[in-house]
Amino acid sequence: MNNSQVLNTVLIMAGGALLLYSISVEDVSPYFKIIGLIIIMFGLYRATNFWVATKDDHQNENENQE
């Protein structure tokens, strides 16, 4: 697994954990929800950019094997 994918996964999980925490606990600052959403969106943005950049890698491998 690529280090970039690990970082994206960690960002998404951390943002989700922060959101779950802010929803489940009373008297929490609304900034926790905002920061959690920003972290999730940043992780998803990085992940989709990585997927788009590597979507044709399997085709290149097949051409090299032939």
Shape: rod-shaped
Largest sheet: none
Number of helices: 3
Low-confidence stretches: none
Number of strands: 0
Order of helices and strands: HHH
Query: DSSP strand (E) fraction?
Result: under 5%
Taking all residues together, what is the mean pLDDT?
87
How many domains in all?
Answer: 1
Rounded to the nearest angstrom, the distance between the terminal CA atoms is 26 Å
Radius of gyration in whole Å, from Cα?
Answer: 17 Å
- Going by helix content, strand content and strand pairing, the class is mainly alpha
Portion in helices? over 70%
Task: Write up this protein.
The chain crosses the membrane at residues 6-23, 30-48. By secondary structure, this protein is mainly α. The protein has one domain. 83% of the residues lie in helices and 0% in strands. The protein has 3 helices and no strands.
